[in-house]
Amino acid sequence: MFLLRLILPDRPGSLGTVATALGEVNADIHAIEIVEHRRENGTAVDDVVVDLPPGVLPDRLVSACNSVPDVEVIWFSRYGAGGGLHMDLEAVEQMTSAPSEAVDILVEQAPSVLHADWAALLDGTGSEIKVALETSATPEFGDLVNQWLPLEKASTLAAPSHKGLSESVLVAAPLESNRRVLVIGRRGGPEFLGSEVARLSYLASLAVTIHATA
């Protein structure tokens, strides 16, 4: 499974042309997600999750997309989190089915929802900041947690020169308070877009609201 992030013209037929090009290299499209509309220049950013049959080189995916006029591949990587087209709704459905665990569910689902590698819940409501919950592959933060809290609103975080984090891009959102924060990381990129920060902010607020109904 591979994830392609593309910039393409925001007009009817663009996705179809890309899909045709991918089909010519025998790629099986599992999901297409519109990440952002850029109305100022008439383009869109889309994530495409595809599978390749044995024997087909992954580089052919990039070549196929680049062969389409006005299409640019800005990110390409293996993708192990599964689909992605309706991950927001699936996360919300899981949270509403278990309100008392809504925050924990969001932490667990965040990497899939945002096509990231890991997520961690930082809790600084006590005398010291601790990692209250984390997914697999979460790096050690050390004293970095002290510079991330408090956090007033969902935003990207500057990547620190810290072993395990220097090549990551980070985004975070406060939950019940500005000292209880969800941090999400991607190794190597791509950068989190404004629309993704907004999605995280919405899901974080929703998780807190759902939890309050338990």
Automatic annotation (TrEMBL):
Residues 3-76 form the ACT domain. It comes from Kribbella alba. It comes from the Bacteria. Pfam families: ACT. This is Amino acid-binding protein. InterPro entries: ACT-like_dom_sf, ACT_dom.
